[in-house]
Amino acid sequence: MTASSTPEIQLDQISMRYQTNSTEVLALQDVTVDIKKGEFVSLLGPSGCGKTTLLRIMADLIQPTNGEIKVAGESARAARLAQKYGIVFQSPVLYDWRRVKQNINLPLEMMGIKKAEREERVDYLLELVGLQDFKNKYPWQLSGGMQQRVAIARALAMEPEILLMDEPFSALDEFTREHLNEELLSIWSKVGSTVVFVTHSIPESIFLSDRVFVLSPHPGRLSAVVDIPLPRPRTPDMRHSPAFYQLISDIRDCFEGV
Ligand SMILES: Nc1ncnc2c1ncn2[C@@H]1O[C@H](COP(=O)(O)OP(=O)(O)OP(=O)(O)O)[C@@H](O)[C@H]1O
């Protein structure tokens, strides 16, 4: 999978100020960056540095106080209305009374897609996330990692151009998380979406991304953009390579002194 040079998401001087009764929080200040079509980028930073805020601005769930965002040359609102986004949250938001296949089917039903096409697409998605044998189970019968795979399949149902993921694996154990990182890359190589992935894990951001956007807190600023030149496909052994350790060290250095 290679990213094209066309900017898919353009953030220009984005600032976000939250107003509560007594206080004001400057959550983001002057974030300017382009994300290319087909690129996999991570937003990395400590708790409270504005990662979720930035993702929500990209998704058109909240409006920035200042600055402009363009998605494929149009507003984020136009992109949302054109169903360009798939979103995966930290905890999988699944309907417990619907079977796995019905959860994945939901956005397709809502869009009025014909039954035969829906069935074909759900089968493809189940295969993509490796859950064919579990399609008739209910979410509560699945492990946390499997539930998150259902959420990913559902987010991909409308074939979104852009997949926005907010710490999707942070509640999972280390083994499951690393395994799902590999699966996510395999899925991404097949669907070709642009991915924006929020994490506070340095190794996770390196393993997944083409570029890592390092955010520093109070106020949230883009303090560095780090290229990850590791070859693709990424393999588990890369996590133990000198190049990987060097990138961890480089990114740690970005946090020093901020
Ligand atoms: N709705 C809100 N009202 C007021 N302040 C908010 C609101 N949402 C976020 N904030 C504040 O904005 C800052 C950035 O929050 P945000 O959730 O974007 O950070 P984050 O990097 O995603 O954190 P975490 O890793 O803990 O999820 C924080 O100081 C937070 O308290």
UniProtKB/TrEMBL annotation:
<dbReference type="InterPro" id="IPR017871">
    <property type="entry name" value="ABC_transporter-like_CS"/>
</dbReference>
<protein>
    <submittedName>
        <fullName>ABC transporter ATP-binding protein</fullName>
    </submittedName>
</protein>
<feature type="domain" description="ABC transporter">
    <location>
        <begin position="9"/>
        <end position="242"/>
    </location>
</feature>
<keyword id="KW-0547">Nucleotide-binding</keyword>
<dbReference type="InterPro" id="IPR027417">
    <property type="entry name" value="P-loop_NTPase"/>
</dbReference>
<dbReference type="Pfam" id="PF00005">
    <property type="entry name" value="ABC_tran"/>
</dbReference>
<dbReference type="InterPro" id="IPR003439">
    <property type="entry name" value="ABC_transporter-like_ATP-bd"/>
</dbReference>
<dbReference type="GO" id="GO:0016887">
    <property type="term" value="F:ATP hydrolysis activity"/>
</dbReference>
<dbReference type="GO" id="GO:0005524">
    <property type="term" value="F:ATP binding"/>
</dbReference>
<keyword id="KW-0067">ATP-binding</keyword>
<keyword id="KW-0813">Transport</keyword>
<dbReference type="InterPro" id="IPR003593">
    <property type="entry name" value="AAA+_ATPase"/>
</dbReference>
<dbReference type="InterPro" id="IPR050166">
    <property type="entry name" value="ABC_transporter_ATP-bind"/>
</dbReference>
<keyword id="KW-1278">Translocase</keyword>
